[in-house]
Amino acid sequence: MPAEVLVMCSACGRPQTAARRRCAFCNAELPEAPLPPRSPQAPEPPAPSLPGVSPLALDLGNRRALAVNDAQLSFQGRPGGGPTLDVPWNRVRRLEWRTRPYFEALGLLAFTALGLFWAPTQEVRIMAFVAGVIGLGLAALYRHHGLRVELDDGTRMEWPLGMALKGSAREGRLTAARATLADAGRMRGVPLAGPDA
Asked: Is it the case that residue 128 has pLDDT exceeding 90?
């Protein structure tokens, strides 16, 4: 059974799942979850090098980054910087690259519905319609990328890699990162699930 990692909210002191970015009770930003300790078993074998796989350092913007080398995966996920989470390859059991449309933009359709049916003026109705078109366009043109890392003890970590416009240079960098991660995982016997993996 996978272990759920909890963090304590520094503002209200209530426990939260580490997958959340903000506290469910007071909306304060949650601290980065520490990597859970490995259960005491046999000593860890040294990590074999990955011939033919070049290290990757991907700048995700806003001082966030994903790095892959022959020893570990590293993720700095807090916008504006913060501590780096390093995961040794010998702890990684499975990787999943997740790509989905930018569904959050469809929230603008609620404004469209309110504006079209309850707006007091024609100008507000037009603005509501334009907001709906923008929301549909954003959902169709942008994709959200994320990486799920499953550890040997069943712990699952979600690493949000950010959004990218389809066909953009940023999406090209994310696609190249996915290919490098797939190669590195293949050399380690760690499968990478997801689109085009």
From this structure: no
